[in-house]
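Could you join me in thinking about how sequence relates to backbone shape in a protein? We need material for that, and I hope you will provide a protein of your own picking. Once you have written the record down, we can walk along the chain together:

…
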Amino acid sequence: MMMRRQPLAAGVLGPTDRAVLNRLQDGFPLDDQPFATVGAELGLTEQEVIDTVMRLRDLGAITRFGPFLDAAAMGGAFCLCAMAVPEERFEEVVTLVNAHDAVAHNYQRDHALNMWFVLACDRPERITAEADAIEAETGLAVLRFPKLREFFIGFRVTA
């Protein structure tokens, strides 16, 4: 299933939401009670932090909460992929593509190449196998754009 997000209405995010969003972008404590640690820093209880994270997810302010693992550092690989999907088949194809565990995320674009997704695999050779399988299932070409060099930009959004 593809998520279709709309901007949040003005005023939906309160001061606690914003404080938690800003704090969690700076890293997550690795201790026995990480939500309590964050709460203590922000003047909140552990449960208030957990409830806020769940609320942010339910609102669509965040799409997920969890670690970002570097497949390449663990011996695997990433590959940016694109497809030209006929509009009348888009929902069918996105369902087929997203059924693959190796698909890390998937975006619709207003472009001839209207579906862009990332394959993240535990072994570099699986990239080819996954992309080939998607081509076989959909009957559409999967263009592959392997990473040549990585640039760390330190992306952060102030809420």
User: Anything to note?
Assistant: Residues 72-146 form a domain with the Alpha-Beta Plaits fold (CATH 3.30.70.3460). The longest strand covers residues 77-83.
